Amino acid sequence: MKTARRLCQLTDVPDGHSKGFNIEGQAIFVVHQRGRVFAYRNVCPHLNVPMEWQPDEFLDSDKRMIQCAVHGALFLIESGYCVSGPCTGQSLTTVLCEVRGGDIWITCDSD
Ligand code: FES
């Protein structure tokens, strides 16, 4: 069964920033890019490990791509597709996400 969950306010993730969450044992992160929000599981497809280099820091230095801190793989923010690094051609796992009433909501599996 799918359940919608409110994560936080959009203003909690400023444009050009990212934020990590733990939802019932599942690590995810969101990226805010020019009013659009994207969410992914926090698991690098290279070695199935968490990706941030510091808490809530999932982006490269110029905030244009998602970057895995372990070996530097780069992923497109809008699709999670890896364009550089040891997992080129693979993708992050997308989490359904939308902005509603100024809040960020995800849709996740629940029992
Ligand atoms: S674990 Fe992410 S690039 Fe190697």
From TrEMBL:
Keyword Transmembrane: no
Highest taxon of the lineage: Bacteria
Record carries keyword Iron-sulfur: yes
Entry keyword set: 2Fe-2S, Iron, Iron-sulfur, Metal-binding
One Pfam match: Rieske
Rieske domain segment(s): 5-106
Endpoints of the signal sequence: none
Name of this chain's protein: Rieske (2Fe-2S) protein
Source organism: Thalassolituus maritimus
